[in-house]
Amino acid sequence: MPTTVPTPQPVPPLLQIEDLHVEFDTPDGTVEAVAGVGFSVGAQETVAVVGESGSGKTVTALAVLQLLDGGRISRGRVLWDGTDLTGLDRRALRRIRGNEIAMIFQDPMTSLDPLYTVGHQIVEGLRLHRRIDKRAARGRASSCWSRSHARPAPQARRYPHQLSGGQRQRVMIAIALACSPRLLIADEPTTALDVTIEAQILELLRELQAEYRSAMLLVTHDMGVVAETADRVVVFYAGQVVEQGPTAEVLRDPQHPYTAALLAAVPSGETDRAEPLAAIPGVVPPLRAMPSGCRFHTRCARAWDDCARDEPPLLPLPGGRSARCLLHRSGTALQAAAVKGA
Amino acid sequence: MVEYVVRRGLYGVLVVALVTVFVFLTLRLIPGDVVRLQLADAPGVSPEQIAQRAAQLGLDQPLLAQLWRFLANAATGDFGTSFQSGEPVTALIAERLPTTLQLGVMALAVSVVLGVPLGLLSAVRQNSWLDQGLRVVSVAGLSIPNFWLGLLLVTYLALWFSWSPPLVYRTPAEDLGSNLVHMALPAIALGVAGMAAIARMLRSSMLEVLRSPFIRTVRPGAPERTVLVTHAVRNSLVPVFSLIGLQVGHILGGTVILESIFAIPGMGMLIFESVQLRDYPVVLGCVVVYGAVFILVNLVVDVLYGVIDPRIRYA
Ligand SMILES: Nc1ncnc2c1ncn2[C@@H]1O[C@H](COP(=O)(O)OP(=O)(O)OP(=O)(O)O)[C@@H](O)[C@H]1O
Ligand SMILES: [Mg+2]
């Protein structure tokens, strides 16, 4: 199939983020929290976004939905089904948000309105998007509800404060999936929950995603979750994508020193308990004081002189992968063709 | 819930009793003697006459005996008779209470009806000129004493518009128009502080709610109006609600001076006059009623609190 656009997928992706820059005005001046992020999510695909705290994962997710509070997209596009969301008016956005793209937030404790029953909140979400009457909405809500295993009926009359964190997150999932969105953005949906509940919630997400045939953009810290859930993984560092590719390959053979360091920091079954985990030395540079050249070079074990000077582009690698590292620059044909969106 | 109300009611009775004792004792500390105030003008009053009058009023008894008798009678609903007119205190209060309640309700209405929209507007239009202007108005409203505001209103309305409130008070039954016009200025003077307090608090709670994650949950797909009205406003009114109970206290206190300034024959004026004449039973009766109204309103507010906010438990 001949295409003029060098995308890795044969079909145009559902969501394509191109060269996204997000700025915030702070009392001490403007900071750029996201600096040229680009990646895509195909239909029914699960893409994981990983990276340290503060690397811009949440800001990117919010930017996709045009929900930035106090920030603005200073450059770049967010293509949804070929339409640029950054230029849409509120009304058009509303039709897409919640209906075609739904989002689940990090903190289930505060993501529900404390004054309404959870059942009401699921029905409300439905009625806003589907022109259906109350009864139909209730029916659909209760089926979503039982699908999300939040236990049937009586729970629907409860208020958020009467539910546990896991149950609330199930409610959030029910709200998000009630309209069977084509893309579900889940921003660390399980960080606030304990490990057993986390596994259940992730399992539920996978199940429902398969049932509703949604794509999923899963933001997480957890490499284990990535390995179990994602088709592809996008690694963030300091507001940029440093590596992306199919999950299995990236985890097996990381092409960016940062990814390698992240993986080394994950405890695995084989690791000798006595051996300390390899922590990444140093801290994420503050937004206001980004190092020149490669943003990771100050912490990188494999950095050399060039790294402080040349900013590496996101270089395409074989197998639909790419990495933002000068290690891959060395005189190959790949050098010229920086992946679109980087 | 019922248990909660009963318990709060009993506490309320206790508080009113303590306040009564306190006021009873402080009244006696004010220099001035009711008998002398009453008889001083009469020429050639003999000490025997004074003693006789004091005995009539029960003032010859030891202080604690008087206090005990007052409390015991009050418990049966008998507040005694006015030293001045000899009328039963309950009758005096019954006659004046409706006027004061009307004034209080009007003042509260000024606070709420103006304070709520102003607070919401300044939150939704944060940092606009409107918000800035309202901030100035609120600070002024909170810091100007209500009686002074009342005097300013009367003075400048008279100076600039040659308008002054009716001289003679008419009950709503006699002349509703005149009554409302008469009550309007004191109600505004009493309500402005509450308006300012409500506007400030609502602004900050609304801003906080607008930033909370659950607004982000609904905002993506909902029209702005739905987000604001059904979620943001309702949530931000919760903390403001308790302010209303406190406001009633300020308003009740303010009626004493404002009714006197505007010649409104309510309980405030009754207290004012009775204190001047050292008419102890009337003052105490009024204090009990004010205390009871305040406690009752706050009980109602707290119960309604639980209705609007499901997180509240009565324990
Ligand atoms: N409203 C804001 N104003 C100013 N700076 C902001 C704002 N929101 C986010 N940032 C900055 O943007 C950067 C990226 O934040 P973001 O929340 O996207 O990180 P994250 O990758 O989601 O981290 P975490 O894993 O902790 O959730 C941070 O440095 C943060 O300080
Ligand atoms: Mg985040």
Overview of this protein structure:
- The complex is a heterodimer of chains A (342) and B (315).
- With 342 residues, chain A is an alpha/beta fold.
- Chain A folds into three domains: 12-100 and 183-252, 3-Layer(aba) Sandwich (Rossmann fold), CATH 3.40.50; 110-180, no CATH class; 257-268 and 297-342, no CATH class.
- Chain A contains nine helices and twelve strands.
- Chain A has helices at residues 57-64, 90-96, 118-129, 134-147, 165-177, 195-212, 223-229, 247-252, 257-264; strands at residues 15-26, 29-41, 46-50, 71-80, 83-84, 101-104, 183-187, 215-220, 232-237, 240-246, 315-317, 321-323.
- In chain A, the strands form two sheets. An eight-stranded mixed sheet of chain A has the order 6-7-8-3-9-10-12-11, with helices on both faces.
- The two termini of chain A are 24 Å apart.
- By secondary structure, chain B is mainly α.
- Chain B has a domain at 89-308: MetI-like fold, CATH 1.10.3720.
- Chain B is built from twelve helices and no strands.
- Chain B has helices at residues 2-29, 34-39, 47-57, 63-75, 89-124, 129-143, 146-161, 176-210, 213-218, 224-261, 267-276, 280-308.
- In chain B, helix 5 packs antiparallel against helix 6 (129-143) and helix 5 (89-124) crosses helix 8.
- Chain B is globular and about 85 Å long.
- Chains A and B meet through strand 6 and helix 3 of A and helix 9 and helix 10 of B.
- Adenosine-5'-triphosphate is lined by residues 24, 26, 31, 33, 51, 53-59, 69-71, 287 of chain A.
